[in-house]
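worker-3 :: picked Integral membrane protein
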Amino acid sequence: MKYTAIRFHRGVRQLAVRVEEGLAELQKRPDRGDISITTVIIWVAAVTGALLIAGTIAVVVAKYNESLNGI
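worker-3 :: tokens ->
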């Protein structure tokens, strides 16, 4: 417990170093292959579809929960 502050400080320092290295890399190579808008649209559609399917399953299970108790 007494080393919590030291561990936290070490973690913050490592995070700061990593961010600084990333910013330096970005300044050296600004065209590092950014993600295209098409890829973003596909990912958003996939996640939305998965959430809709999971929500539908949850609604059906909640609706028929009493009938499914004997299974």
